[in-house]
Predict the 3D structure of the following.
Amino acid sequence: MTILQVTQRGAVAQLTMNAPDRLNALSDEMLAALQGTLDQLADDPATRVVTLSGTGKAFCAGHDLRQMTAMRQSEDGGAAAFRDLFDRCSKVMARIQSMPQPVIAQVHGIATAAGCQLVATCDMAVAAEGTRFGVNGVNIGLFCSTPMVALSRNIPRKQAFEMLTTGDFIDAVRAQELGLVNRVVSASDLAAETDALAAQVASKLGAAVRIGKEAFYQQLQLPTAEAYAYTGDVMVTNMLRDDTREGIDAFLEKRDPTWEQ
């Protein structure tokens, strides 16, 4: 069984986590598959958008607790193995945001702990009605500290802290209200709505979207004045492209642009 299925549909790469018996947990095997595939796609100019979904009844239930329990058997009680695990997981999350293509999560069932982190890390997310989101490690004595990084950068801090300390789930409607997901649709429409959003983004000038995604995350880390200076330089670089000139000329001439990429 392929743990991560990859389907290329035009400019959109569809990734499907395929470990339904483990609720698509971020096991060692799943993390390795995600890292390798995302690295390859990042260097593929033909891919403009990536979608990420899961098979079975859940999007992703977080880390594989059985594997984590086995790590305790080492002499240091698992300290080195745990550090390595969380480093590898963080590397996957960082890769999602550093790769030039937008990544859209297609979420159903549940997204818990590192699974919720995965949703928060993706650039956009579409959720099925009835989906539940949680960072509920606190319920088993493990505070979701690494998932907290992405979650607290997506939703207001008091709501994030409440989720982290109570272990309660929120539903898809509440997730949209808080900004964790972009859209909530019926389960029957989930794939189609995600595909439509991906196709819409893929139809834009790929170079502009790549430039914009990098700038989006870079400017978030800067003070306002520095962010304006930085993004002003980005706008200049974008404006000087021949394909951007073609886009502007086409708009002024009321015709469709002819882009090479």
About this structure: The longest helix spans residues 79-98. The longest strand covers residues 4-9. The chain has a mean pLDDT of 95.
